[in-house]
């Protein structure tokens, strides 16, 4: 599966947690009604 993902690796739980923290922070205040797929670039293939 890792060979098929353009990023060349799978995401880690820590990366998922950091993104969740970003979304919960004031820094993400401009994002509204968005979907953020965790695909490692799979959707861009």
Quick summary:
With 45 residues, the chain is an all-alpha fold.
Structure report:
With 45 residues, the chain is mostly helical. It is 27% helix and 0% strand. It is built from one helix and no strands.
Give descriptors for this structure:
45 residues; mainly alpha; 0% strand; elongated
User: SSE string, helix = H, strand = E?
Assistant: H
Q: Approximately how much beta-strand content do the residues carry?
A: under 5%
Shape descriptor reads: elongated
How large, in whole angstroms, is the Cα Rg? 12 Å
Q: Oligomeric status of the shown chains? A: single chain
Outline the low-pLDDT stretches: none
Number of helices: 1
Main beta sheet: strand number and arrangement?
none
* Alpha carbon gap, first and last residue: 14 Å
Category by helix and strand content: mainly alpha
Mean pLDDT: 83
Annotation, overall tally of beta strands: 0
Binned, the helix content reads 25-40%
């Amino acid at each position: 599966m890792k060979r098929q993902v353009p990023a060349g690796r799978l995401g880690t739980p820590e990366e998922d947690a950091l993104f969740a923290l970003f979304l919960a922070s004031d820094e993400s205040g401009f994002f509204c009604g968005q979907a953020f797929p965790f695909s490692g670039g799979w959707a861009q293939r």
